[in-house]
Each structure stands twice: as structure tokens, then as C-alpha cells.
Amino acid sequence: MELIKLIQTFSNPFLDMFFQLVTMVGEDTFFIFVTAIIYWCIDKELGYKLGFATLTSAALNCGIKYFFKIPRPIGEPGIRSLRVHTAEGYSFPSGHTQNTTTLWTFFMLQFRRSWIYAVGVVMIFMVGLSRLYLGVHTPADVLGGMIIGVIWVLIWCRLYEASERHNNNNVLFITVAFALAGLFVFKDAGYYKVVGALAGLLTGYLTESRFIKFKVKAGILQQVFKVVFGLLAVFVLRLVLKLVLPQALIFDFFRYFALILWVTVVAPLTFKRFSAN
User: Fold this and answer.
1) Model pTM?
2) CB within 8 A of 267, min separation 6: which ones?
3) Tens of pLDDT along 186-245?
4) Closest CA to 96 of 126, 121, 51, 71
5) Residue 141 CB: number of other CB atoms within 10 A?
6) DSSP class of residue 24?
7) Sequence ranges of the domains in the chain
8) Is 36:105 a contact under the CB 8 Å cutoff?
């Protein structure tokens, strides 16, 4: 708590805005956008691999939070908390920090470029610092998120690559089955959203790879169309589903299931038809 208070002694309107922008890099919207762009325009298989890595890490994070049930520092005397509407559930470990660590550790392992190492370390540190500055996590939460994020990526990438080598999807089925079983244990909105997205990704993976098989390579105009139209549709669909569906855990699941199904199935079908014309 004293470290948070020390960091917040430097607070001012500019830093308030700056760290709120930085912390958004650790939120689900950013991860959906990044994964979608990679999946649609760069490397479909890499998109699947990244999607499963980040979503399984997020599900693990929610489960650990629910297990330990450590309260956040929000409301503690002398601590000012900002952007609290994104600080759902319990405190340990920091979801934003773990998500960011998962993403950049994944990129480091896949590309092994010095500039990616540099950018990744900076982004992980800055997102972690933002959670302290905003008064929504403790240093233990941030450090825990970093450690778990790194360890999980190392484990998951090995499992995923082994399943690819043997052309066997059992690892994916078992992982999603365990996550779905957790719905009966972890009565948390964040967990339902993540597992809904994970179930949508597996459904999309099986559907697209067998029946759609869209091509990532395309001309510049087609790639621009994919990004602009695809991401705009994600934003609109997310807004509409939130307005239309009742506020309940099961609908949190279905909202994110539908969002990821759009990214993995409906959008590729649209792109395929567009390119055919």
C-alpha cells in the first residue's frame, strides 16, 4: 500500500490520462483487435495459437482470483482509484498485467527479435505500473501476473505445438472442457466472458479449418477492408449484444461466444465472398 501511495504522489491530470490509456493495452478489446488482425491479414495459424494462449491464460487468471479471493486496494485510506469499472473481481493476480505478459512473451517466443524483446519488456512494465498508479492492484498482484503469464505461455505453447505435430486436437478439447466445467464453480462475470470467448474460438477453429478455409493473403485494398469492416463490426456487435441481452452470467458467456464466432467464422466467410467478387 505504501508503494502505491508513493507512486500516486506524482499524480496529475496528464498522468491520469496517460496511465488510463496505457492500461487499456491490457484489456480484452485490445486483445480481440490484435488477434483478429493477425488472424485475418497476417497468419491464420498464428492467430489461432495466440488466441488460445491469451484466452487460456485469462481463464487461469480468473480461476486463481476466485480461489484466493484477495480484495483490491480500492477504497483503502489514502489510495485514489481510477478506471475502476474495468477492475472486476478480486485482486490477485493482476489480469491486465498477466494478459500483457502473455501477449508479449508469446511474441518474443515466436519471433525472437531484439526489438520485440525491448518493446515487450517496456509494455509489460508500463501496464503493471499503470495498475499501481490507478490504485486497483498491489505490487504482489502485478508481480504475480507477470510470473504466471510467462510460465503459462511456456507451458501452453509446448502443448499446442505438440498437438499440431501429432495432428491431434485433444489438448484443445480437454482444455475447453475443463474451462466449461469451471462455469459451475467460478460464478464470476469475467470468467464467463473468457470461457465464452474460448468456446467460440474452438468452435470457429473447427468450423473454419474444415468448411471455410479462407486465404489470408490478399491485396492492399482487401486487407484494409478486412481490418476496417471486421473491427467495426466487432465494435457494433459488442455494443448491440450488450444492449439487447439481459445482464446475467450466461449472457456474458454467449456475448463473447458470438463475438469470437464473428471473428473466426462469419468475417472470414464475408472476406471470402468479397475476394471472389
Assistant:
1) 0.92
2) 36, 40, 226, 230, 233
3) 988 999 999 999 999 999 999 998 899 888 998 899 999 999 999 999 999 999 999 999
4) 126
5) 26
6) G
7) 2-276
8) no
